[in-house]
Amino acid sequence: MASSPPPPPGTTPVPPAAPAAPKAAHPASPKPATAPAAVQPQQKSAERGDLEAVANLKAAHAAIKGELSKVIVGQEKVIDELLIAIFTRSHALLMGVPGLAKTLLVSSLSQCLTMSFKRIQFTPDLMPSDITGTEVIQTDPETGKREFKFIKGPLFANMVLADEINRTPPKTQAAMLEAMQERRVTVGGNDWKLPDPFFVLATQNPVEQEGTYPLPEAQMDRFMFLIYVDYPTPEEERKIMKMGTSSSGSKKIEPVLSGQDITVLQQLVKRVPVADHIFNYAEKIVRVTRPKTPDALDFCRKYLSWGAGPRASLNLILAAKARAILNGNFHVSCDDVAAVAPGIFRHRLAPNFAAQAEGITTDIITAKILEAIPKDKKLD
Which end of the chain is more exposed for a tag (fewer CB within 10 A), N or C? Predict the structure, then answer.
């Protein structure tokens, strides 16, 4: 083997290169994962999108109130609770004496939302097929074959106004409430899915009870809110008289949100974060209403026959989420839970005879519960 030539004079000889190290038997340690770095911008983008959606919802909330103010005076809390029911994919029951614009409010709200709307006036002779739909026999012009065809009833709409729901017999009420819960109707052995979004806003007259069929407690529990529509203030009543007797005529209500917008906002409500303390607070104010449990407060044992069930707990959190984003917040506070509690408890607490004799209503009991349960202390 020939030797390499000597280096030129004045230069430093270069040592031979070291032999390459053998490859390790085990695989090389992996490089730092890049997935989090790739996911993080997506997460930030999603959060930005949610924050923008919350801001847009707050603006839409103000716009809806502005449109409704063209025909409705006051009733700010009623409007908020109706919107909360809509954005949580729930239903609401309005109760108030005649002449307080319950029907006008719901029909005007439907004009703010670009969705199909149907009104059902409940009467004692209304049958289930009158609201769900019925099958009719039709003849095919080509084959001459006779077959059944389903004609959809007024329930097949995005927003349904069930006017004076307590005036129809229990059989029709049950068909209505089944559609509310299952979001479908069954006719002739076939299931027909109702459109999405779908929500029912019902009204009930508490004054004239002759010839009415009051909703049982189990059926009223299907509604998220029992909204009490009260009399207007003196200033509001003067404004109502001026608006209703002027020659300017009714103003046109412009649409603000579409059905697709409502569906997106319903998903946004579910993504609103809730701290454990809020869950504990909502759980506590529900459990203290149950008079036969160790958690019950003394006045609940004294004045209630039974308390709220788990559906009240679910609705407290959902409604608090919707209330938070309607106010432009992306987190839920105990104040949000307390604000929606009266409408959720109103038809879920059963005052006993002692409460009725002393004039203690569910609203009074709810106020005492909220006063007794602290918002700023750690709850077990």
Answer: N
